[in-house]
Structures are given as structure tokens and as C-alpha cells.
Design a protein that fits this description.
The complex is a heterodimer of chains A (363) and B (360). Chain A starts with 8 loop residues before the first helix and ends in a 17-residue tail after the last helix. Chain A has a two-stranded parallel sheet. In chain A, 46% of the residues are buried. Chain A has 14 helices and 2 strands, in the order ααααααααααβαααβα. Chain A has a domain of 232 residues. Chain A is an all-alpha fold and 363 residues long. By secondary structure, chain B is an alpha/beta fold. The longest helix of chain B is centred in the middle third of the chain and has 14 residues. Chains A and B meet through helix 1, helix 2, helix 4 and helix 8 of A and helix 2, strand 4 and strand 17 of B. Bound molecules: FE2/S2 (inorganic) cluster (FES). FE2/S2 (inorganic) cluster binds next to loops of chain B.
Chain lengths: 363, 360
């Protein structure tokens, strides 16, 4: 079991200052190496997409069909995670290159990039694991922490979680529509319509491309390409869901009450990011396939630093955590994911004593 | 514009449901290095020295280039150590049947882009530029006085070639300033123009002479060199010391003829030491306001009645990213200052050090 030393105010400041210094050291060396890295990632997205689509054009012949689905799935995963997610964080803005400009980047995903920039970059990264503020905490469907209020609807949450995983790209997009606010009358129909427009456009664009145009281009192999594209999207959805749930809902991840936001210093903010996030151990390929969200802790401490730097930064972050007696939540993928599944099943049921969140630091 | 819309790539509309610009560019550039969806990529066709410290680059742009007019400028992009830098230069030629553009670059000691262009760019290489911009127009139907200092000669070259082509008999005096004979640019080209234009007079003034204070533009010099200045429309281009000297003389003499000036000033030196007033310009809304170096740009823009997008207000979410067109800012997260024109900055963690223009 983890243990976190309670830090004094000045220790928290010093902790923050050390993490800031690591940031400065890294930012000072950004350049060619990072530009080359993201271009390589882009190349791998393009090549796997082209190869995957070409293979699917060969129809249901099993070897090419299966390989085609996998390649296209991989392409979409890398596009969404290592390329899109990181670029949209502005990690490569230092290049001043319009193609990698965080504000303009658009990805191969049903969620319009602008929605994502709001719900993810702003809401999730600013209010990480704060109950009621971070909508990523179960996406309003799943209860993951004893601090969240239980209601009978959660009994079926393993099923909801599965559905969310299957339809994850739509789930992520719908999150921004804030449907619950429409339902409980807090949002006007007109405002909802305005939010809905860009979603509809993007949905139409991505669906028409994958489910109409490419199948039509395949002529007699229409059905094969259609099925292949559905499967590739499914693979992407499941994988991104798994990785994202492993980022903040593992066994030792913590949630916080909104009161932590009052007078939160930079040191406190770092501490909250650390305690709310969890890493996954794995190979270099695994890190790329998870968009370096396997370095979730580093990503939350430094969302704007190129993800290809997280691996080397993690060595130092770990040292700093050890120095201040803070638990560094990392583990094998299987173990971390099992603990997420456990939470999904466990907190479908009520717990005996409703726990108040964030009884410990940071407070 | 010379050869505009005809080049607009209509295939982009057909392709857009299938591929986006980035994907298209990825493949197109591998087939032909100048092919792009919308970006302007040029092949360098010629590089020639026009003074000891100045090179003229001739470029052949791809079909996305929308043409230019005499006296316009362009943005040149250079990727150096993974970072794309941009600088504006003036066109030194006029629209021509070959569709070529020429610009000239003076080597600035310590200058990142000018040195890169001088040392790294070779004939046959490819380079990206932006569309032509700038709308200064010289009157062509009256006698002219052109005053050019150093690389201020560049837009003047474009004007002169335009005149030599269209108005050979125009009455033009050019006062050209340079430190010494070696750095006096475009002499050969100016001689060719003089051969075509009977009423063109070139007067060169070398400013640096050992053991003497540098020679500067003043009233007396103007009287000596151009006794009929009052009948001429004037255009002065060069360092701000030169353009403001011309403007002063013009005002002192009470001239009513049009005077256009264009100053090439080095970026203001950052002064980090204290909180000081700065001028903030918002190019999109056309506002200019007095600001302070002590407050982040997001707060200041809001105080000036603008509504920039924002979220966390602490540098995490990148909602407030905005193009800084010019000026020097400090990044509060890293403590670094930067003067790079056209860079994207987070308003909430940037304070202005010099006067700043934002794309807001
Ligand atoms: S408002 Fe979030 S980065 Fe500026």
C-alpha cells in the first residue's frame, strides 16, 4: 500500500520548485529532435493508414482483411493519441509549424478538436480528479470512487462501462454537449443546438468517409471495407478507453473535493496532479501506442512538454517524489487495468460509510 | 494582382471528403517537392551577391502563389533546429512572365534567419513563403525622390524596375546611402535601369569615413543634392533614423507633396528590469492601447475590451494561444523572453517587454 508523507507548506513550495526546474531544463533543449520525432509519428500514421486501407480493398480474404483492420486501427490509435492528443496540447507549438499547431490541429476522430481542447485540455487538466469539476471521472456514467454518491443506477455500470468503451469516440464528443444540462433545463434548446452543430458536422464527415466513400471506392468489396472500417474504429475505441481509464482510476489514484482549489499554489497543483494520476510500465512501442499516457504523471505535471520527453523526465520525477516521500503510482499494465476493473465492479455497489473526499493533503 | 485566381486549386474541394490538407501535403511533396494543398513552396533558381553583405534570391513559387505588385513584401520561412522562423523581406523585382520573385537579404551580425539564408540555402533548394502583402503605392505621374538607406533599397528596386518597364521617361532621383562602397547594394542593376531611363539620377552617399562622424541626411544635404525637392513626391525607406530625418526636413520645409516612409527597425531591446508602459496593438480589431509590462497579456486584452478565448488562466490548457505578430514577450513559466515574429504565445502566461502586436 502506498504512503504519502504529509508535507509542510514550505516543503510543498520546494517540491513545486524542483518540478519547475525540471521543466525549465527540458524546455531549454527543445528543438530538432522533437520536431523529427513528431514528424516520424506522423509518417507512421500515414503509412499504416494507407497500408490498412489498401489491404481492406482486397476484400474479405482473411490474411489481408485481418492485417488491414489491425493496421487501420493502429493508424487511428496513433493519430488520436501520440499525434493528435499531444499536438492539441500545444506540445509542438514551439515549432511554429502550422501543421503541428495545437490550436488548429484536427484529428481522425468523431469528436471535433475544439470540443476536446475544452473538455480535455481545460476542464480535465485544470481540475484533474476534482469531484464535480473533472467530467472525465467516470464520464457521468460510471462511479469509480467511494467519495462519489451512489444511486441504484450505478448497479448496471459494468454494462455502461462496456458500452462507453465500444462507443468511446462518440462518448468523448457527447461529453461536451452537456446533455444533462439540457435535460434538467439548465441549458436552452438554442444553446444546445449551437453546441450540436460542430459535432454533427464532424460526425457526418468522419462517418461518410469511413462508411460510404471508402467502401464505394472499393467497388465489389464495399461490405468488406465497411466492416473493416467499423472494426478498426472499434479497436481504437476500446484501446483508448482502456488507456484513459488506467490514467486516473487505478487503485492508488485519489480524488479531491472542490475546496482544494481555494488558494491552490503551484506546488499544491503539482501534488494533486501526481496523486490523481497513474503510470503504466511498458516498452517503447507500448508508450507510443498509448500516446505516452503511460506516463500519465509526467503528462499531467507537464501537459505542454513534448511527450517524447516524458520517459527521460520520469526518472527525475521519480527521484523528486522519493525525496519528498510521495508515492509514485506506476505498475504493470495488467495490474493497473485489473484495479480499474475492480473499481468498476466494486463501486457499482454502495459502500457502508460514505467517505468525504480528500481528507488528506492537498487541502 | 497579376495572375490571381486562375491558379486556385479546385481539386482541393473534390478531395476534401477523402483527405485533409496535412495528408495531401504528406504525399504530394514526396511526388514533387513543391506540390502542396495551399502552402506556397518555391524552388530557389538563383542566388547572386548584390553587395558585400547582401544576397539576392530568385524563387519560382508553386501554383498557390497569388502574385504580387511592385513594392510589396513577403514572409520567408526557415526551419532552424526544429523551429520555423519567419522574416519579412521586400520583393526586389516586378511581376514577370517567368513568374519569378526576387528578394534580397542583408547579413545581420548574429541574425538567425539572415545568416541561415546566406550560409545554408542553395540554388535548387525549396523554401516556403507567405502570400505578398503591403499596399504602399507610389504616384507614377509626377517627379519622384527616392531615399534608401542600406537594405532600404530593396522595395525601391522593385519600384524602379516597375517604372523602367512602364514609365521610362519618369523623372526620378534616388539618394542611396550605405556605409562604404563595398556595402552599396544593386549598383549593376541600377546602372541598367539608368540606361533605360533617361531622366533617372542616382546619387550615392557613403556615410562612414575613417576619423569622421558618419554623414547623415539633413536639410543642407537635400538642398545640395536635390535642389528641386519641393516638386517631388518622396519615398524614404531604411533605418528609422533615416526615415524620421526625412520626415523632419519635410515638415520643417512645410512640403505638401506626398511623403511615404518605411522603417526597418531592429526589434526593441527587452528591458526586464522594471515595470514600464508599452503600446499594445490588436491587429484584428484595429485597436491600440497603452499597456504595462507588469501584467499578463490576457488580463490586459480583457481590460481593453477584447474577449480572447481562455480557460485555466495558468498556462496549462492552451485555450488562450494567440499569434504574436511582433514585439518581445516574457514567458512567465520559463522566464524566457522571445522576439520571434509570428510565434504562438499563451496570453495568460506572457507579459510584454516591448510594444507588442497581437492577432486579436
Ligand atoms: S488560459 Fe489556459 S493556457 Fe492560457
Amino acid at each position: 500500500m502506498k504512503s504519502n508523507r504529509t508535507l509542510t507548506a514550505s516543503e510543498i513550495d520546494a517540491f513545486g520548485a524542483e518540478l519547475d526546474q525540471l521543466r525549465h531544463r527540458t524546455v531549454a533543449t527543445l528543438g530538432e529532435r522533437d520536431a523529427t520525432y513528431i514528424r516520424r509519428i506522423r509518417t507512421s500514421v500515414r503509412i499504416t493508414e494507407l497500408a490498412g486501407r489498401l489491404m481492406l480493398f482486397a476484400g474479405f480474404f482473411p490474411p489481408t482483411f485481418i492485417l488491414g483492420v489491425l493496421l487501420l486501427g493502429v493508424s487511428k490509435i496513433i493519430d488520436n493519441m501520440e499525434l493528435g492528443h499531444n499536438v492539441m496540447h500545444g506540445q509542438f507549438d514551439f515549432m511554429n509549424e502550422p501543421e503541428f499547431c495545437g490550436k488548429r490541429f484536427e484529428w481522425n476522430h468523431a469528436c471535433p478538436a475544439d470540443f476536446w481542447r475544452y473538455t480535455h485540455n481545460y476542464e480535465h487538466h485544470t481540475y484533474t480528479n476534482i469531484l464535480g469539476k473533472d467530467k472525465d471521472l467516470g464520464y457521468g456514467l460510471v462511479r469509480l470512487f467511494p467519495e462519489q454518491r451512489w444511486n441504484p443506477g450505478f448497479l448496471l455500470q459494468p454494462l455502461y462501462a462496456l458500452l462507453l468503451a465500444i462507443l468511446f469516440q462518440y462518448g468523448v464528443a457527447i461529453q461536451h454537449l452537456k446533455m444533462n444540462r439540457l435535460l434538467n433545463g439548465k441549458m436552452s434548446k438554442a444553446e444546445f443546438g449551437e453546441r450540436f452543430q460542430p459535432f454533427w458536422h464532424k460526425l457526418r464527415h468522419t462517418s461518410v468517409r469511413d462508411y460510404v466513400i471508402f467502401p464505394l471506392l472499393a467497388g465489389p468489396h464495399f461490405v468488406a471495407v465497411l466492416c473493416g472500417n467499423i472494426l478498426a474504429n472499434l479497436i481504437r475505441n476500446l484501446w483508448t478507453w482502456v488507456i484513459i481509464f488506467c490514467g486516473h482510476f487505478t487503485k492508488d489514484a485519489e480524488v479531491f473535493p472542490q475546496s482544494v482549489l481555494q488558494n491552490e499554489t503551484r506546488g499544491h497543483w503539482y501534488l494533486r496532479q501526481l496523486r490523481g494520476s497513474s503510470n503504466l510500465k511498458g516498452s517503447k512501442l507500448f508508450h507510443i501506442m498509448s500516446g505516452n499516457l503511460s506516463h500519465q504523471i509526467e503528462h499531467h505535471l507537464y501537459p505542454d512538454i513534448p511527450a517524447n520527453r516524458y520517459a527521460e523526465m520520469s526518472v527525475e520525477v521519480r527521484k523528486i517524489c522519493a525525496k519528498y516521500g510521495q508515492h509514485y503510482n506506476t505498475g504493470r499494465f495488467s495490474v493497473q487495468f485489473a484495479s480499474v476493473l475492480w473499481r468498476i465492479f466494486r463501486y457499482a455497489l454502495p459502500n457502508r460509510h460514505q467517505q468525504a473526499p480528500g481528507q488528506k493533503q492537498p487541502a | 494582382m497579376s495572375n490571381t485566381a486562375s491558379h486556385t486549386l479546385s481539386f482541393t474541394r473534390w478531395l476534401s471528403p477523402l483527405v485533409d490538407e496535412a495528408t495531401f501535403d504528406f504525399y504530394a511533396r514526396r511526388i514533387n517537392p513543391t506540390w502542396r494543398w495551399s502552402r506556397v513552396i518555391c524552388r530557389v533558381t538563383k542566388i547572386e551577391p548584390v553587395a558585400a553583405d547582401m544576397l539576392a534570391f530568385t524563387l519560382k513559387p508553386n501554383g498557390n502563389w497569388r502574385g504580387f505588385e511592385a513594392g510589396q513584401h513577403l514572409q520567408v520561412y526557415a526551419e532552424i533546429n526544429g523551429v520555423r522562423h519567419s522574416r519579412s523581406y521586400s520583393m526586389t523585382n516586378t511581376p514577370n512572365p517567368a513568374g519569378e520573385i526576387q528578394f534580397a537579404v542583408k547579413r545581420v551580425p548574429g541574425g538567425l534567419v539572415s545568416n541561415w539564408l546566406h550560409d545554408k540555402l542553395k540554388t535548387g533548394d525549396h523554401i516556403e513563403i507567405g502570400q505578398a502583402f503591403g499596399t504602399q503605392k507610389l504616384p507614377c505621374n509626377q517627379p519622384l525622390l527616392l531615399v534608401a538607406g542600406g537594405s532600404g533599397i530593396t522595395p525601391v528596386m522593385s519600384w524602379l524596375q516597375h517604372l523602367a518597364h512602364r514609365y521610362q521617361h519618369a523623372d526620378v532621383v534616388l539618394l542611396q546611402y550605405a556605409r562604404d562602397a563595398a556595402t552599396l547594394p544593386f549598383q549593376q542593376q541600377l546602372a541598367q535601369i539608368a540606361a533605360k531611363m533617361p531622366n533617372f539620377t542616382l546619387q550615392t552617399i557613403l556615410t562612414d569615413h575613417p576619423g569622421q562622424p558618419p554623414i547623415v541626411f539633413d536639410d543642407q544635404q537635400l538642398t545640395q543634392r536635390v535642389p528641386d525637392a519641393q516638386r517631388r513626391a518622396a519615398f524614404a525607406c531604411g533605418p528609422s533614423s533615416l526615415t524620421s530625418a526625412v520626415r523632419q526636413v519635410w515638415q520643417a520645409r512645410g512640403y505638401t507633396q506626398p511623403l511615404l516612409t518605411e522603417a526597418f527597425s531592429p526589434p526593441a531591446l527587452p528591458d526586464n528590469s522594471s515595470v514600464h508602459p508599452v503600446a499594445l496593438s490588436y491587429s484584428r480589431s484595429g485597436k491600440q492601447q497603452q499597456g504595462s509590462s507588469g501584467v499578463n497579456l490576457l488580463q490586459q486584452a480583457e481590460a481593453h475590451g477584447l474577449k480572447p478565448a481562455n480557460g485555466c488562466r495558468m498556462g496549462i490548457c492552451f485555450s488562450c494561444v494567440c499569434k504574436k505578430e511582433s514585439g518581445t514577450v516574457t514567458n512567465l513559466l520559463t522566464g524566457e523572453t522571445s522576439s520571434e515574429p509570428g510565434e504562438m504565445i499563451r496570453l495568460c502566461v506572457s507579459t510584454p517587454v516591448s510594444d507588442v502586436t497581437l492577432d486579436l
